[in-house]
């Protein structure tokens, strides 16, 4: 596993748990608003060569946190592009930690394997746009049917989960939000997180805007028709 970085403590990223985050390097998306550029762009990842965190060092860190942390968030980048993700998660669970996966949902076969082998306790999947319009934000051609497979696998699983959308004023309106929920159907939990233009993969996205609180509230009312629990950030 190519480990690009570690956040040694978070109280926000694994709901209800004290956790650390491990960031894997590499991603199959090029979302213009991404703020983890160093774990996405090949030229940025190249700069990390020689500075990747060895797995043994990461697991030594976990061994020193057994009584301090409840769980580990595996984020990125996109963790599911790595074939050794199941082994990596198993090693985390063998040490007694809960696991949370952040994913873009483009690898349903991996998600199915992780669920079947009970290697994740919580999954958060990003929903960028209506499933047939992903390229507007993902930057690459994306098969909506594959994304839908991941959505359904997660919804039918027995674990905790959430779907989440980063809303950008220039891309998300009432019609877009309504179509997102029609695509994914009823879900237990959904998070609307507001765009932050301070650091973006594509410089042009720095010119776009966060949604107003009024617009966020409108989105929230739409979500309440489809969601058991809606969370709004920003």
Structure description:
There is one protein chain. The protein has 234 residues and is α/β, with parallel strands linked by helices. It has one domain: Aldolase class I (TIM Barrel, Alpha-Beta Barrel). Helices cover 32% and strands 23% of the residues. It is built from eight helices and eight strands. The chain has helices at 42-48, 55-63, 85-94, 108-116, 135-138, 144-156, 174-184, 213-223; strands at residues 3-10, 19-24, 71-75, 98-103, 122-126, 160-167, 187-194, 227-233. Strands 1-2-3-4-5-6-7-8 form an eight-stranded mixed sheet. Helix 8 (213-223) links the parallel strand 7 (187-194) and strand 8. Helix 4 (108-116) packs parallel to helix 6 (144-156) and helix 7 (174-184) runs parallel beside helix 8 (213-223). It is globular, with a radius of gyration of 17 Å. It starts with a strand and ends with a strand.
